[in-house]
């Protein structure tokens, strides 16, 4: 069932010749009966809804990147999501980080480095990170900047400060 | 008396900390606190009666719940000291893939044994009463029994209660074409401990439980039928998106309180 819901190619093969696919899986009689009765459109809807929930979460983690990609965001995420399934309770952040890495190969100009780095920091074991970089998004303009991130015991989410460095511009 | 409260979200923290009269209890999602310090968790729950809700223990997956997830869940329970804990009648992962969201199970005897075993393991590990929630799904799997009978037998076999999600029941009844009242009346009322409710949305003649809308009147009618049918201990509103203002949310809670108090 997990494969049916996560792998579009497998779904195509399965529903192309259900009997043969079930035989190949070598499942018991009860499971075989269940699989034979599966409603293809309902499986497709459920599979689509899993990807769409992931897409929604990733969009929330990457608002600037999503804005830059505009209507391409969903389509690019859909293509990426079929190839990668994150695990664990940080799955939405892992998903967003991997999507950024994927986008860096396809549409590097659309990845907001500041967002990407902030999420990498959440996943890292570090409590503090300071970066000097070119391309900070400050007031919708790309500048040289310093990004400081801190994980404080009293705060639920990391705290982030970004300063532009006009002297280096 | 039925307590009315909200599912804790970070954006609600200021309002929750003010302890408004309308919030009588709080449900926290365990996974939201897995990476948080004890201090943050204690600040969040304050002095409220608390329930800890799980999303990722995947009780319907063969084998025991994931050890790391279970240990994190236990820690949240230990710190927050809830009245009870809850999870779903669902799977979120298989041995091959972590789907990350809830998926339905066939109401079969084999599945009953599997979930009951994992439910017992979870409640024993946490030392708390466990209640299990019905989910909403595009997919309806067939089994040897219907869903209410499956839930009744699960409660008995695993010694758990029910967290009845009123919105999920409503949405499923629309999408799968059944009478929610007839479905409800097949349940054993003594099993129903807590309720979830949130407004539904509708698109292309399908209903969705996307936790983003105010509670509609037809849901309030179903809620009224549920609290008339069972001695419900708590109702939690689950808004994740488009969180209303404090005054709007408070008004919604007062409306729920009136429905619960009228029965």
Give an overview in words.
The complex is a heterodimer of chains A (169) and B (263). In chain A, 57% of the residues lie in helices and 16% in strands. With 169 residues, chain A is α+β, with helices and mostly antiparallel strands. A three-stranded antiparallel beta sheet of chain A has the order 1-2-3, with helices on one face. In chain A, helix 2 crosses helix 3 (18-25), helix 7 (72-81) crosses helix 8 (91-106) and helix 8 (91-106) packs antiparallel against helix 9 (113-123). In chain B, a hairpin with a 4-residue loop joins strand 5 and strand 6 (98-103).
Label the overall shape of chain A. Answer: elongated
Low-confidence stretches of chain A: none
Computed over alpha carbons, the radius of gyration of chain A is 21 Å
Biggest pleated sheet of chain A: 3 strands, antiparallel
Average the pLDDT over all residues of chain B and give the rounded result: 96
Which stretches of chain B are low in confidence, meaning pLDDT under 50 for 5 or more residues running? none
Number of helices of chain A: 9
Helix content of chain B: 25-40%
Distance between the termini of chain A: 55 Å
Structural class of chain B: alpha/beta
Question: How large a portion of the residues of chain B is in β-strands, by DSSP E?
Answer: 15-25%
Strand order of the largest sheet of chain B: 1-2-3-4-7-8-9-12
* Gyration radius from CA atoms of chain B, angstroms: 17 Å
* Protein structure class of chain A: alpha+beta
